Amino acid sequence: MDNELKISAFALSVTGDGQNLDNVYVNGRYMTAGTEPRTSINKVSHVDFQVYGVCDGQAEVAEDQDQAASPAMVVMQRLQRLQSVLAEEGKIEKDRIWQFMVDTNDKMVEYRNSFESDEVGSTFAALFLHGNRGLAVHLGDSRIYVIRGGRMLQITEDHLESSDLYKMGIISQQQAEIHKRASHLTAYFGMDDLYDVEDDVFSKYFVFYPGDTFIICTDGITDAISNEAMERIVRSLKDGARDTLAARILQEVEDRSQDDRTILVLEVEDAPGEAPVRGASTIPRTENYKHSPQPQEKEEVLRATEEEPSRPVKRRKDPEMPPVEETYDGEDDYEDDEEESVMDRILGNPKMLAAVLGGALIIVLILVVILTLAKRGDKPDSGSTPPPSQSSSQAVDSDATDSSAPEQDSSDESTAMSSPEDSGESSTESSQAPSDSSDSTPSDSVTEYTVQSGDSFSAIINRHYNVNYDEKLMKAVAEYNNIEDMNKLQLGQIIKLPPREQLNLE
């Protein structure tokens, strides 16, 4: 299929309290200063190079000042000039995009200094599309999503303090979303040194197809709705028009957000290059878009993966399939994709995967047999063997004394470093330690726990009481131990864990 790129776009922006500090860029068009409380842009573009984006500015402009000098307008005007340059070159040029961001940031710093206020700046999220290749660029907490086959994926990561804490394993993803509003931005137009976040600004190049949908929105949307709730709306309106989807999401957050709310929905109606295999859908994966922190000699162009033909089952996990082979007629302005990794080839080939798992199982069985024979060789003569009850008692005492600390370390570490999807399973396994000790400890006794490396207060409470983030219980235990800040634990600190009946849970 050698057709030109055709994208239908619909943007909708609603003013919150005060001036609308948001703005939206729809392939050359953006909102003018002093727009109405509710503004929409509907546009269909048939050109090979297209740019879309949003920004969320800070610092209102007084009525007697030039509205065109507001942070959001500065970004929009410079983005329009950048698109003209890139369209003439006929390719997505990362160096030019980065220079645009550096120059825009310098202008914003100058603007901030003239205001003599630190509350001046703007977030930014944009898609640069050429042919059937794309590049996502962002600063701050404005987001970009891709929708394919009813599945929605966030392809940007918020530049927020709470997101950094989640990446370091200090808090869960749920906690990061809860603290999102109170977190400070770690990257935005107007920061002192933009070069500090250069590695976190660009996604990888990716391939898109006809039927794909992109959503770009400001934090006035995402602060008031979870990704799961937004995806449910997407699934319910799978065949709905782009304006219907945008209006439905805005309606969902209307009563929960007083901030400016801006959303841009893009539908890829046609694109050059080879289409996906007929009868099969492609699945977007996070790693197809995330920028690698390691420097690379070549720009990677990650390809979407192909799903197995659908079967009449109620629900199944998305399969990991080998990349779809792409064709790109004419001179290719992008570097070729790197070879598939060994792991991708193994996961994409059921026979190879079965062979690897079978070999691993055989190795494990051999090790078990060797260890069993070694233990039998180390057993003393039957005449010196103590009675079974005494031997069992000694073994239990020895295990409880010698191995409890290492097991606790392992449990704590796995809990702290587990992903949000695995946290439920990890907390269930870890919570078995307190329940096992209940045979020898009265139910009304107080358990003392020594803080280990990697521990968090919530993880300790979850394991001991077999709960999943009970804020009342955490506060009650903190009050019982006279702990003022639950986020500041010290190695070796003793935490007393009484039964629930002894805690004030009101």
UniProtKB/TrEMBL annotation:
Residue numbers spanned by region Disordered: 274-340, 377-450
CDD domains given for it? LysM (cd00118)
Q: Where is the composition biased (Low complexity)?
A: 390-406, 418-448
Residues forming the PPM-type phosphatase domain are: 29-268
Membrane spanning stretches: 352-374
Q: By its UniProt entry, which InterPro entries does this protein fall under?
A: LysM, LysM_dom_sf, PPM-type-like_dom_sf, PPM-type_phosphatase-like_dom
Q: Where is the LysM domain?
A: 447-497
Q: Which Pfam families match?
A: LysM, SpoIIE
Keywords in alphabetical order, please: Membrane, Transmembrane, Transmembrane helix
UniProt lists compositionally biased (Acidic residues) regions at: 326-340
Q: What domain of life is recorded for the organism?
A: Bacteria
Biased composition range(s): Basic and acidic residues:
296-311
Name of this protein: SpoIIE family protein phosphatase
Phylogenetic classification of the source organism: Bacteria, Bacillati, Bacillota, Clostridia, Eubacteriales
